[in-house]
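Exercise 7b. Backbone tokens:
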């Protein structure tokens, strides 16, 4: 069991710098360290003699492959494939062939493990999607409708499925309490204040917060930028899951809780005129770096300030720590804004209104008491 645990790969533990080139991942798929020889690998343009113009085209194709999915998705796909290959080697299976029976046994092993080796249904479904994607990149097809996969997965869902664990929504008063834990006299405090307010008012995902630049086309890894409108607010232009969208963040009713004022203060004192909006603060809090923050920093910030503010004091510290994440800001806006549903849906970038209603149902719990209404 100890050996198996050592082979487990956590997507959270994989640093972006350690992520292999996505084409390399595809080329290395099915090359087990031991066992029967795999089929010939896909053609690697870097290892063949190609005209210069085709080499440049191959490099561009690699860029497009990377752009087809987010860095987080690629990390998850790479980690899931490594985990599957490690399991196959231990069972003397060949991972290079998309065999439904092998995959069915694999997901069974994931569901029937003990302790940390037992995976949630959502994790199993994600790993199955990762295998499907990886095989597709090799020009192979994994038939998820095959009975060895579909029937087993249906049984796993019926046996182990549990209600989703939703993160705690940070409401307006919660956010104010969190802001009070930050030091306004430091660059780090100004930055964190701007991130919390912008993330809440915009209903932004943590990757969207840290992916912003000050202007358009300023960095290669930027996923959006901002535009200031005097006396009105700031327009956030984002490249999200469903394409480009605009998020309007208006000025607040008072400067201490205004996201626009907080953002302007951060940019002024950090002396940022170009490039990533939110960056690391180093040198005892006196120096602003050039590289953008990792999206994990947003999750850590929300959790740290929520705990410092004493939110959900009725729970233990361990339980409280699990309640809050970067998504708490996004859920907070949707749960707090008393406006027509369509405006919230637009702000969050939801394609379907049903997703928006999930947040609003949490907001509206017990507003109508049918017990009393029935006369009881």
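Sequence design result:
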């Amino acid at each position: 069991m100890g050996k198996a645990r050592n082979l487990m790969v956590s997507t959270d533990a994989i640093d972006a710098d350690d992520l292999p080139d996505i084409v390399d991942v595809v080329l290395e798929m099915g090359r087990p360290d031991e066992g029967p020889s795999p089929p010939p690998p896909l053609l690697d343009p870097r290892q063949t003699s190609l005209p210069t113009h085709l080499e440049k085209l191959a490099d561009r194709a690699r860029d497009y492959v990377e752009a087809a999915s987010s860095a987080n998705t690629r990390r998850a796909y790479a980690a899931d494939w490594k985990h599957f290959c490690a399991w196959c080697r231990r069972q003397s299976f060949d991972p290079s062939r998309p065999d439904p029976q092998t995959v069915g046994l694999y997901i069974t092993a994931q569901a029937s493990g003990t302790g940390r080796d037992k995976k949630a249904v959502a994790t199993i479904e994600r790993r199955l999607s990762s295998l499907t994607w990886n095989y597709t990149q090799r020009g192979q097809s994994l038939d998820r409708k095959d009975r060895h996969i579909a029937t087993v997965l249906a049984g796993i869902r019926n046996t182990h499925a549990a209600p989703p664990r939703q993160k705690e929504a940070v409401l307006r008063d919660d956010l104010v309490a969190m802001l009070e834990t930050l030091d306004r006299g430091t660059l780090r405090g100004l930055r964190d204040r701007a991130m919390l307010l912008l993330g809440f008012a915009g209903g932004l995902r943590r990757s969207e917060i840290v992916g912003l630049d000050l202007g358009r086309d300023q960095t290669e890894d930027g996923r959006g930028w901002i535009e200031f409108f005097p006396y009105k607010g700031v327009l956030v232009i984002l490249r999200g899951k469903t394409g480009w969208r605009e998020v309007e963040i208006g000025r607040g009713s008072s400067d201490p809780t205004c996201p626009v004022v907080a953002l302007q203060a951060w940019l002024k004192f950090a002396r940022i005129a170009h490039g990533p909006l939110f960056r690391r603060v180093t040198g005892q809090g006196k120096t602003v770096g050039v590289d953008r923050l990792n999206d994990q920093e947003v999750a850590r910030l929300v959790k740290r300030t929520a705990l410092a503010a004493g939110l959900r004091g009725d729970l233990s510290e361990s339980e409280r720590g699990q309640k809050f994440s970067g998504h708490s800001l996004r859920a907070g806006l949707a749960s707090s804004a008393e406006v027509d549903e369509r405006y919230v849906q637009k702000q969050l970038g939801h394609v379907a209104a049903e997703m928006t209603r999930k947040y609003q149902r949490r907001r509206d719990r017990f507003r109508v008491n049918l017990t009393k209404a029935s006369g009881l």
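Instructor comment: The two ends are 56 Å apart (CA to CA). The first helix runs from residue 2 to 7.
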